[in-house]
């Protein structure tokens, strides 16, 4: 049987202007190859509704899977979700489950879920959410189009959320530990932890906030009990 | 007046499989932005004639300029030139001026212009050659499509050859000095040379051949006499 085919759509003026060098294409290409999915085409378009709609329609009709990257943040030029809804001819609005995720996330962070952030809960009708263990705001799947964030660490975490669903593997559960410490401090104990838990996948996604370095440690596995026990161990290990 | 628009077509299975990370898109994006040309879309397709033809037709019709990258080497899977000819409905064959360039190049290198290398002189009817000061085998322009090599150093040198033609600047002349020494040896005197000749553009393109490091030094300028004098100085400087 031939491998399933895929295309990628990278959305963002910052790539086309040369300000930012895209990293997601190369990452996705490697992941899909590993999973036996053939990436056949990539397009990069600007933050322009007509351009996004045209590309989504063409790629969605031509390939088994389409992955998009970028344009799902809180600012006015993040028009990917609306453009995907338009491409499929469905409505879009703030969805309760997505809003609840964001509400809990910002409450934990002591921040307000303002109008701009609430934009990230706008989901096209009929879509399925894609888990974002790094920064919570979800991606989504509509039809055969998987809509992911543009920030590389979030993109990569979302790829890990969605890929097992496409290749018949068991869905992975995830737990996230957010620490206000840089990766350099954590790398040693984290390596030991990963080596002691070969059945779990351990990822570290660094960030910077108000000038302070932090890391989201995302642990994935198939067994909820094993995951919970591992997270307790990890917290103890990294609190040291 | 609005800026002219452009699109890029990256051709190559090695990008889509994740084996190679594309570097040309980011480079071209930066160059076009500097020159006031708006890069509006990029597509990446595999070494597949139908895919290349379809993309060339769509992009050529939609944008003022199209730049392609990859698939113009000597091997059987280098099908870009034939695909471009097919997209424009014109013939293709070995062209005398391109053959003469390659003949002189391989004669200098003491190598044979065999059947495979001669493939690189296949140029669609009606095309204009694009100079390749790094490795000789030329690119070409057909209609509004500029066909460039995939190897980043050659791609960059070809971009420098073609861009002034598109933006109304005076065409640049070039001289190339090929040295079997690594860049590390040359960087010091080359920096001094470049500083002493602010009206010339000086580029260094390293390569490896039979395990030995070499560099092509490409010097560009508008005045042939100035260039020739500068090359004599450069040879004396780097022979030391």
User: How many domains is the backbone of chain A divided into?
Assistant: 2
Major sheet of chain A: order of its strands? 2-1-3-8-7-6
Unreliable runs of chain A:
none
Name of the top-level CATH class of the largest domain in chain A: Alpha Beta
Relative strand content of chain A: 25-35%
Describe this structure as you would to a colleague.
The structure is a homodimer of 240-residue chains. By secondary structure, chain A is α/β, with parallel strands linked by helices. Chain A folds into two domains: 5-166, Molybdenum Cofactor Biosythetic Enzyme, Chain A, CATH 3.40.980; 173-239, Ribosomal protein S10 (Alpha-Beta Plaits, 2-Layer Sandwich), CATH 3.30.70.600. The first copy, chain A, is built from nine helices and eleven strands. In chain A, strand 7 and strand 8 form a beta hairpin. In chain A, helix 2 (24-35) runs parallel beside helix 7. In chain A, 38% of the residues are buried. The mean pLDDT of chain A is 91.
Defining traits:
3-stranded antiparallel beta sheet; alpha/beta; homodimer; Alpha-Beta Plaits; Molybdenum Cofactor Biosythetic Enzyme, Chain A; about 240 residues
């Amino acid at each position: 049987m031939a491998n399933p085919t895929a295309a990628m759509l990278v959305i963002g003026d910052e790539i086309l202007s040369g300000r930012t060098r895209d990293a997601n294409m190369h990452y996705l290409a490697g992941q899909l190859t590993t999973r036996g999915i053939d990436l056949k085409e990539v397009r990069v378009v600007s933050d322009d509704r007509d351009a996004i709609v045209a590309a989504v329609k063409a790629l969605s009709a031509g390939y088994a899977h389409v992955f998009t990257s970028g344009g799902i943040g809180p600012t006015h030029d993040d028009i990917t979700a609306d453009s995907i809804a338009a491409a499929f001819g469905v409505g879009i609005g703030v969805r309760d489950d997505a809003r609840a995720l964001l509400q809990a996330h910002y409450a934990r962070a002591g921040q307000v879920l303002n109008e701009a952030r609430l934009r990230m809960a706008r989901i096209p009708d009929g879509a399925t959410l894609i888990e974002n263990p790094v920064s919570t705001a979800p991606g989504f799947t509509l039809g055969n189009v998987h809509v992911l964030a543009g920030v590389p660490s979030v993109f990569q975490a979302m790829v890990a959320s969605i890929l097992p669903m496409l290749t018949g593997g068991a869905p992975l559960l995830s737990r996230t530990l957010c620490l206000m410490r840089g990766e350099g401090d954590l790398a040693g104990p984290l390596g030991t932890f990963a080596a002691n838990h070969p059945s779990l996948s351990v990822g570290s996604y660094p960030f910077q906030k108000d000038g302070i370095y932090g890391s989201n440690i995302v642990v994935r596995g198939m067994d909820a009990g094993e995951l919970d026990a591992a997270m307790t161990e990890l917290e103890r290990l990294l609190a040291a």
